[in-house]
Specification:
The chain is 50% helix and 14% strand. It contains 23 helices and 16 strands. The relative contact order is 0.15.
């Protein structure tokens, strides 16, 4: 398969923080533990062994989750391996976006799979298990309630409140029917529709349905999909949540890191509070604050004394939920993890965490920037080649792309620049003659020539517009290709859903991406599919 590579700087659509980490900017060195190189995973492995986890709990909880939707012995064999002291994980995490949402949901999973497989192969004394954590405790419904399919926005509008993973699926039926209509009736579309129906029908919660759905898509590639919203896992976070309630270590440490981060020239990320914990109450997820000697939920009607909230935390940890500041600590406390795979934004907020992890005695993993892919059809690439365009040419602003096309394929006489420049000599010659007789008329000569030049430039512009109309069909096609690669002048991976490509390429789509994945090569990888 043909592929093309572009540095993040060249593309011009990645954040400054993202580019800095991808290019190993020296200014970031103090904010992470391990350089993101494959060989450094072996160093990470040695350090990770000093931080044991409850492997029995891991096996029990993940087994319980998977028993809800599969009886495949191979899957449970994978889960059982987590009980082995020589098994480690590579984790990625994401919100349960509607039917996975943008493409990069899939890309980060495949990056984690690729790293895990390679490390397991090269370190034959260990097994490395890729893990996707579904962030079903989030309550930012508007961030994940939609997807783009063939350029059409599909949206779930039922805002039930509270953790999205706990939402009922009842109101999702018309949304899924809309997706089925868009997908059509091809063989690959029917296969995909069957996967959706299998995952969502009969499930009591959106989180459970999404866990099953992602498993049907890429579980066969080796990844385990895990939900963290359960009492067993939450038990392991109790000491850190107690610290957050009583001593505010994360608040004090992360604020200092963020100050250093901004002084180093990088943008501050997640907002850190004295208390970074939410409380679940029916269909709500309330932020906890401290007011005098009481702990309260400002939006709700809950309040506790110190002893009351600590008692409830220990007896019902499932009622408490970490925010983005504590969530990385949560997963690293539960899993024997070596590295976290994430996008540029995620890496940025992890870079504000190293001292926090140290202060709370939690292992700080390697941070691996996930693969960024861009997909273009063979037909679209052939059109570009026919017009003598390269993919790099499409990185230009739209008006420059149009100008380049017209320069390549328009008439020679479309530019009057040469003729207009010749007027300078005529103006100078006339000016010299006039100056001898009446110097006061020279400015009028200049004004007349300036007006004439402006008129000629206006004629040139009209000629270009006429030329543009002649080539309108190709220019519109060129614009559509550019918009496919950079929708809304952004990145394709942040806009398109995988289904737009899956119904063309079927099951081989994920395998093709996996074959081309290499998250240690931090460039935009353009694949011809």
């Amino acid at each position: 398969m043909n592929s093309y590579y572009f540095s993040f700087e060249k593309v011009g659509k990645f954040s400054a923080n993202d580019i800095a980490y991808a290019t190993k900017d020296n200014g970031l060195k103090d904010f992470y533990q391990y350089d993101p190189d494959f060989d450094n995973l072996k160093i990470s492995l040695k350090e990770r062994k000093k931080y044991p986890v409850d492997r029995k709990l891991l096996v029990e909880e993940i087994t319980r989750q998977y028993q809800n939707f599969t009886q495949d012995p191979e899957i449970f064999e994978r889960i059982q391996k987590l009980g082995d002291e020589n098994t480690y994980t590579i984790i990625t995490a994401h919100q349960p976006n509607l039917l996975t949402g943008p493409l990069y949901f899939i890309y980060k999973c495949l990056s984690a799979i690729k790293v895990s497989k390679r490390l397991s192969k090269e370190q034959n004394d260990i097994h490395v298990q890729p893990i996707l954590i579904l962030g079903g405790e989030d309550h930012d419904f508007e961030e994940l309630n939609h997807l783009s399919l063939f350029g059409k926005r599909v949206e779930w509008t039922d805002h039930q409140g509270g953790a999205v993973g706990r939402y009922s699926n009842e109101s999702l039926r018309p949304v899924l029917d809309e997706v089925y209509d868009i997908l059509g009736g091809s063989d690959n579309a029917r296969l995909l529709i069957d996967k959706i129906k299998t995952a969502f029908e009969g499930k009591d919660s959106y989180g459970n349905a999404m866990q099953h759905f992602v498993h049907t898509l890429i579980g066969h590639l080796g990844i385990l999909i895990v939900q963290m919203d359960n009492p067993g896992f939450k038990q392991k976070l109790i000491p850190i949540m107690e610290d957050d309630l009583l001593r505010h270590t994360s608040y004090n440490v992360v604020r200092d890191i963020q100050s250093r981060f901004t002084r180093a020239g990088f943008d501050e990320q997640a907002y850190v509070r004295p208390i970074n914990i939410f409380y679940f109450d029916k269909n709500a997820r309330w932020r906890i604050e401290k007011e005098n000697d009481q702990y309260v939920t400002p939006e709700g009607n809950k309040s506790w004394t110190k002893d009351e909230i600590l008692q409830e935390l220990n007896e019902h940890p499932e009622r408490f939920s970490p925010n983005v500041v504590l969530r990385p600590l949560y997963q690293e406390t539960v899993f024997p993890n070596l590295a976290y795979v994430g996008g540029g934004g995620e890496i940025s907020y992890w870079l504000e965490r190293k001292d926090q992890f140290k202060a709370l005695n939690v292992f700080y993993p390697m941070l691996i920037r996930r693969d960024s892919f861009q997909l273009i059809s063979q037909k679209d690439l052939q059109s570009l080649e026919e017009w003598n365009f390269t993919l790099e040419d499409l990185l230009q602003p739209e008006h420059k792309i149009v100008d380049q096309y017209l320069q390549l394929h328009g008439r020679d006489e479309i530019s009057l620049e040469t003729e207009i420049n010749q007027l300078d000599h005529i103006e100078s010659s006339i000016g010299k003659k006039v100056e001898v007789i009446d110097p006061t008329l020279v400015p009028r000569i200049g004004a007349q020539f300036a007006k004439f030049k402006n008129n000629l430039y206006g004629i040139e512009k009209r000629l270009k517009n006429s030329e543009k109309q002649i080539h309108d069909r190709n220019l519109n096609r060129l614009k559509r290709i550019t918009e496919k690669l950079f929708p809304d002048n952004g990145l394709q991976e942040r806009y398109d859903n995988f289904m737009s490509w899956y119904i063309i390429h079927g099951e081989g789509f994920f395998r093709m991406l996996l074959d081309n994945a290499d998250p240690f090569d931090t460039r935009l990888k353009t694949l011809i599919v």
